[in-house]
Each structure stands twice: as structure tokens, then as C-alpha cells.
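Priority: medium. Attachment 1 of 2:
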């Protein structure tokens, strides 16, 4: 029996045409997707990060909470704003449910002014006659380290003139918390935490080169010039990494100071 004749160039041409059509459709779909992504709006949400969940698991106990205060918050990292960082630390202490935070940094701007108004008879109640809560422990917090470029990697590939590349870097930030016993003035414990600040980039370029190469496989050329390029990057913020350090540190502080 005579075998059917297979015309290989014809089949290659059809395959090439199909690949070109699929590739062009994929490019069009990608452009629509990128446009939709750029227009998307991200809704606000309650922080549910891993460190925040860890803080939420701190064991709550009945009765009065341990009163703590912060007199000193320092940073050797230029990117960290001390005032904002201290507020984040106070928020973490309150979220833990293990501590009652005594105001010390803005005592004169808030509590003392209210007590003065009360002592002069301008407000009701007896706030001026009561003592201010004393702290059992004093926390001294220092953002102590930042290691830029701790890890770095990059890679790329070229397929028919289309280039796909990517890279990643990892910095790190750390903080130390000293625990001072207000009764004795002794440093009784310390906690230190570090967190990586990760960044990544991806890029795709020369899509038109790949399409032209595919068309050339069948001896054809694209009727119009088609090209595409995409670049994206993502980087964890310093404040986000610092908040994560704080939440982990506070969870550890709660464990040590409430299980005595």
C-alpha cells in the first residue's frame, strides 16, 4: 500500500502561523490584563500579617495588666522616624492585651494639663487628687542595625530575541528592647529581633523579536510591527518590617513578663 505523502514545509508553515496567532492573542490579553491591573483599587483592611497574628495569640489573663512605660526610643537607622516608630511600638503593646501603657513622652501636653484644669475647678471629677499610675517595667528600645544588600541575585534568559529577567535583594533591620525593673533600676532582661526587607524585580522585553523569529520560520514576516515590554518591582517597606519586629518582640515580652 502506498503511504500518503506528507508535505513537511506546508505543515511547518501551518504550525508557525498557529504559533504566531496564539502569541499575538497572548500579547493582546497581556496588555488588557496590565491595563486592568493598573486601574484596580486595593481596599483597606485590618493588618493580618504573620507577626500580627502571633501578637493576637498572646495569652490574655484576667485582672490588672502589668503597667509599662517607654522613656527612651532611639534609632541608628536614618530611614526610621523615631516618633512614628515609638507610636507603632505602643500600638503593639496595647494590641497584645498583656500591658497597660503609662504615658510618659507627652505627659505635660496631655495628662498634666488635664490635671491642672481639674485642680483649678474648671473640670468635674477628682483627677488632680489621684496619683498617676506607676510603671512596673520600663522598656528602652533601640533600632540597632540595618544591613543593606545582605543578599542579592539576578538571572535572565533570551528566547528568539525576547528577554526575560529577574532579580531579588534582601536587606535586614533589627531592634533591641531592654527591660528595666522600675523597683530596682536593674536591667532584668533583653529581647532582640531581626527581619529581612525583601525586594524583587521582573522584566520582559523584545516580544516583537520573538514573534518575528516565529514568522521567519515559515518564510513570512509580520504585517505590522508588534512589540511589548513589562517591568514590575516589589519591595517591603522599612516601616512594615520594623512593625513586624516590634510585634514579635512584644509577643516575646508578654511571654516573659506575664508568666512569672
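Attachment 2 of 2:
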Amino acid at each position: 500500500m502506498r503511504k500518503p505523502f506528507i508535505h513537511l514545509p506546508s505543515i511547518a508553515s501551518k504550525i508557525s502561523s498557529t504559533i504566531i496567532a496564539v502569541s499575538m492573542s497572548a500579547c493582546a490579553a497581556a496588555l488588557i490584563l496590565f491595563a486592568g491591573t493598573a486601574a484596580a483599587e486595593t481596599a483597606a483592611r485590618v493588618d493580618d500579617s504573620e507577626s500580627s497574628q502571633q501578637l493576637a495569640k498572646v495569652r490574655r489573663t484576667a485582672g490588672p495588666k502589668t503597667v509599662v512605660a517607654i522613656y527612651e526610643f532611639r534609632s541608628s537607622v536614618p530611614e526610621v522616624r523615631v516618633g512614628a516608630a515609638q507610636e507603632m511600638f505602643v500600638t503593639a503593646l496595647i494590641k497584645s492585651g498583656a500591658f497597660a501603657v503609662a504615658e510618659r513622652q507627652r505627659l505635660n501636653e496631655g495628662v498634666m494639663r488635664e490635671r491642672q484644669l481639674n485642680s483649678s475647678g474648671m473640670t468635674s471629677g477628682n483627677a488632680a487628687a489621684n496619683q498617676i499610675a506607676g510603671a512596673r517595667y520600663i522598656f528602652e528600645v533601640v533600632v540597632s542595625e540595618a544591613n543593606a544588600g545582605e543578599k542579592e541575585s539576578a538571572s535572565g534568559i533570551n528566547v528568539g530575541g525576547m528577554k526575560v529577567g529577574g532579580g531579588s535583594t534582601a536587606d535586614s533591620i533589627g531592634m533591641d528592647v531592654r527591660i528595666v525593673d522600675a523597683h530596682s533600676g536593674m536591667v532584668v532582661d533583653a529581647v532582640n529581633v531581626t527581619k529581612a526587607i525583601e525586594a524583587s524585580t521582573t522584566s520582559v522585553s523584545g516580544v516583537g523579536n520573538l514573534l518575528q523569529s516565529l514568522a521567519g520560520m515559515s518564510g513570512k514576516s509580520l504585517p505590522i510591527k508588534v512589540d511589548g515590554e513589562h517591568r514590575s518591582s516589589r519591595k517591603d517597606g522599612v516601616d512594615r518590617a520594623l512593625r513586624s519586629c516590634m510585634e514579635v518582640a512584644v509577643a516575646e515580652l508578654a511571654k516573659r513578663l506575664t508568666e512569672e
